[in-house]
Amino acid sequence: MRRGLLIALALGLLAAGAPTAHAGTVSVFACESNGIVWDNKSWTGVAAQGIAAHSVCPTAGTLIGNDVGPGTNPIPDGATGTTTFTAPAGTSIADFSFTRGLTYENPTAAGTHRLYALYRLGSQVFAGAGNYDDAVRNQLNAQRSWYGYPQNNVALPKALVSRSSFPALAGYRGDATTLQVAVGCFRRGSPCSVAKGGRVRNALYGAQVVLNDPSAPAATVEASGLLAGGQRSGADPITLTASDATGIKRVEILDVTDGGLSVVGSERYDGGALTRTGAGCSFRSAKPCPNLGAETVTPSALAAGRRTLKVRVVDAAENISDEGPYTVDVVTPSDRGALNGSGATEDGSLSARFSKGTATRRTVGYNGAVRITGRLRNSAGQPVGGAQLRILSRDLRQGARPRERGAVTTGADGIYSVTVRAGASRLLQVAWRSHVNDPGYQRSAYVTLKARASAALSAPRTARIGRSLVLSGRVRGTLPSRGVSLIFQGRRGGGAYSTFADARSSRSGSFKVRYRFRSGSSRGHSFTFRVKLRRDAGFPYEQGYSNRTKVRVR
Q: Is pLDDT above 60 for 20?
């Protein structure tokens, strides 16, 4: 969150103004779209017996959709596999485009009938192939949108299509809330099948869905902090709560004195800033941006004098709500100090990655050292040298808050490099203030460093049949007050590990468990013990293990 410079204010009466609204749209992307490879967080696959549903597309060329492979028999009459985009409540689908591919090769086994593949917007089937309702097929065939009519084999190559590509949607009113591709078995009184040599695949390689969001955000600004009355420090934030069907993209503090309009403070959740809960905008999600709860925004460029302010809340579809106006007397103007770095401008770009590659996520052993590197550029794309960057981190556990970890300075080429240790799984933030006195950050870049759980385990070197063996040790790192769940495992020689006990560490991480060798067949053999540590909401580590310790039975 951004913090403004200290300014003393005298606050007038809060005047409640009517919010203004402008209906807008926002695009949600999945897989390959607009030249970018996106993950899929908006389309949901539901499989059926014999019909697969794919919904993961992390790399170029992967797809989502539904698929039936050769030799699948039987598929129940009426079974349907779907992959569906569902608009958030309060929105509808205004438009769409997707890159599709359809393979319909459907030989059948005896006593079965063919499948269908179709495309549906809301309740309207607008294209398809195969064995389906005759009236629908006939209508779409007249529009050349029932491929291989009535149910012949057909292959549509990978191609980009849009809503305007389908005559059945010519009168679309923009009120549907679902967009779907499907493969299914139309009810004919017998099952379906795909015999050897066939395949039915209804695939999407990429999609863009345009959502219509007709409503402005709902926002409440608190009479606290900067707006609490009396002479207030400019470092006191404005606090607000806001919600919307597509989420909040940005918040701005506007100076509207004497009919003017200038932005004197803002947070952009689509531009790298995160809410106090660590959320930001992601246009691969059906609801792209987060709602705000007790979020703070601080002015950074107020002039001295009696000023009139508004708080503007903008949703992902660019619908606007203005709260205010609020009259304040600014005793001293903002003083942001010099630009931070040689060649720095008001804005710029900042990158971060792990060295020796382009990865922004890495998992290493407990307390392992890794190097983070990146580059700072100004708004013209030129390197910014000599700029001080702050290093912050937030443990990946419930209730954790960001902590400042140090600083690093960019070289003349704008490049920086810093070594950090994986003392816990953390979101690491490299942050740049465009001016040296700015309390908030103009640009931030993030990497995720995950640490494997670790523990020190000790045991006697030897044990006797029938006597208790004590295994003890301590879990490393940051622990919740309830301790950590532990799984004790052992193996004989080089065999597979088996679990023989579970326990929980103390809040300090110490643990102890007893084990007894009972069988005489253990005598003369060596056994290896270890402790397995699993992920936990309050334990910011990936699954890991203690060191291994050997015990010989005498």
A: no
Q: Which CATH superfamily is domain 348-451 in?
A: Immunoglobulins (2.60.40.10)
- 0.85 exceeded by the pTM? no
Q: Find tokens 């660590």 and name the residue.
A: 278
Third-level CATH fold of 455-553: Immunoglobulin-like (2.60.40)
Distance CA 410, CA 431 (A): 12
Long-range CB contact pairs, 162-165, < 8 A, 24+: 162/95, 162/96, 162/97, 163/95, 163/96, 163/97, 163/121
Domain at 9-23+215-330: CATH architecture: Sandwich (2.60)
Q: Which CATH number fits domain 26-212: 2.60.40, 1.10.10, 2.60.120, 1.20.950?
A: 2.60.120
Each residue of 269-316: pLDDT tens digit?
998 889 999 999 999 999 999 999 999 998 888 776 778 899 999 999
> pLDDT per residue over 461-483, tens digit each?
999 999 999 999 999 999 999 99
Buried b (16+ CB within 10 A) or exposed e, 101-138: bbbbebebeeebbbbbbbbbbbeebbbbbbbbeeebbe
